[in-house]
Amino acid sequence: MISLRLPFGGSPCPADFCVVSDIVTDSINDLLGCKEWDKSMIFSNFIKHVPPPEQLEDDNTPFAQARSLSVTLLVEGEGKCDDYIDDLMMTCAVDIGDNLARIVAAPCTIIHALAHNSKGDTVIPRDDMVALDKCEAEGAASEERICLGWSLNTHSLLVSLPPRGFHKSILSSRAKPPSTKISSPF
What we know:
Blueprint: H1 13-33, E1 80-84, E2 87-91, H2 99-114, H3 132-138, E3 144-147, E4 150-153, E5 158-160, H4 163-175
Helix pairs in contact: 1-2
């Protein structure tokens, strides 16, 4: 059983969030991989809360060239979703088919399907599972995004710690007393 309210900071809460978010993520990936899914026929009305895609300010910057991989990966052109506790991260090649529209529609469609608030006398009123304020603030597709405290730029293939995050990290490390021991879990 999952609590209806999982306060941030509660020690069991991340694991409980992950039970739901992992199912949502796997279902989104299944939907993205489904060639028969027609996003114009099967969708959630929550999609109207997702802002239009954000464009980089300088469209003339060439795409960075990726290095060759050390491992062989399957080529999957339909996009992918991953999660961390209650945050979903989506990626796709936007120039393949209608990938951009599909990665925008898939999360709302799956969350709506899994947490549908039915009508009727026996239904307990509750908030929607889609956080509309978060969807409106952070839901736009973008090549550049701060995710889990890191700045990700998929156009330039850069992962960096933003200045504010760097400053906070330095301050928190200075606040801790120096340790003379080094421990390892191995």
